[in-house]
Acetyltransferase (GNAT) family protein (Cryptosporangium aurantiacum), 168 residues
Amino acid sequence: MASATVTVDLVVRDLLHEDLAACAWTGTPTHLRYISAALGRRTSGAVDYLAVCGPSDLPLGVGGVDYRRRPDAGWLWQFVVHPAFRSCGLGTLLVRAAEDRIRQRGLAHAELGVDAANTGARRLYERLGYRVTREQDEEWDDIDAGGRVVRRRSHCAVLRRTLPPAAA
Ligand SMILES: CC(C)(COP(=O)(O)OP(=O)(O)OC[C@H]1O[C@@H](n2cnc3c(N)ncnc32)[C@H](O)[C@@H]1OP(=O)(O)O)[C@@H](O)C(=O)NCCC(=O)NCCS
């Protein structure tokens, strides 16, 4: 077995419609449609949608901020990092970039929902300063392995962080 340490430059930029062909790894076809719909809401200012990219400029991780869901906070959602690149800090980079966007809107809080079973993601967000404020049930449509539309349900913890002022 050979091993090496490679340093790469990463950029966080807006996710574009033309990136979606390279985002099949993010989930089901339904999930890609949700992302496409979210990108459509960006023109009205309702969302930001970010991608972290390596030197190829292909998305290695994506995530959105919804500004319509909460009156005083940006809502982080649909955060996912390519499985091959997890635990390298990309998720942390994306969350911090999303928080910068929220600050630029003049908002001082970020919120997100984590499925009760997703203990790994919750641990990461708590490490990044997020704290549980409440619990709630979420429902959404998905497509199962047989191509059928199914209603998914999830019990989520809602986590919130008061954002410190941007570093000078
Ligand atoms: C949740 C998710 C987005 C996090 O992305 P990620 O790129 O793995 O996140 P990070 O690498 O920043 O941090 C994850 C872990 O790696 C560790 N880590 C961070 N930088 C690291 C580095 N340079 N080297 C090694 N480990 C590192 C973190 O401490 C964290 O550890 P923890 O799990 O014990 O808390 C990713 O796991 C994912 O896509 N999961 C599936 C979808 C999902 O659950 N999304 C969240 C919905 S709320």
Notes: Residues 79-81, 86-92, 112, 114, 118, 120-121, 123-124, 127 surround coenzyme A (CB under 6 Å). The mean pLDDT is 94. Residues 90-104 form the longest helix (15 residues).
